[in-house]
Amino acid sequence: MADRARLPPGQFLTPEFPVLTAGPTIHTPVDHWKLALQNGGSLIATWTWDQFEALPQTELQTDIHCVTKWSKFDTRWRGVTIDDIFRAAAVEVPPTSYLMAYCDGGYTTNLLVSDLIKGRAMIATRFDDLPLLPSHGGPARLLVPHLYFWKSAKWVRRLAFRNEDDPGFWESRGYHRRGDPWREQRYDGDPE
User: What is the total count of domains within the chain?
Assistant: First the structure.
C-alpha cells in the first residue's frame, strides 16, 4: 500500500510513466546537443554532450507529480545538478532570482532560481539506469521534482537568467507561475 503522506492533494498514484507532450516528440542526436547558460542575452557557458557528461553526476530517487493529477513514486534519475552546472560555469551567486528554460520544439518554462539550487533540481540524462528516451525528454530534460512535472521541461537546451518572472509556454496559457503540488498551484489564480 502506498504511503498516502507522500501523495499531494488531488493526486492519484500510478505505476506507469505517462507520456504527455505539447507537440511532436523531438529526437535530438547527442552529437548535435548542446546546453547553454546565459544571463539575459549574454552567454556564460556552453557544454557539448561529452563535456556535459564529464561534469559531476548525481543519482536521485524521487517522487514526481503531474498537473494532470498522476503521481509516480520512487523514480530514479541521473544527471547534473543545477548547483554543479553553476559551479562549472563559475556562477558563485546567481545574477537574478528568475530563470527561463528553453527547449527544442519551442517549449519554455519560467522558474525561481531558489527552486533549482541546493540540490533541488538537475538536468537529467538517465532514467532507471538507461539513457532518457526522447518521449520522456531525452537526451536531457530539466528535473524539478518538487514542482508539477510541466516545470521539468523536456529537451532542454538553454537556461537563461532573467530579471523578470516572465511566463513560459504553459504559464502563458493559464497555468500557475510556480506549480507547487502540495499547494495545488495548478492554474493562474490558485493560492500562492
Answer: 1
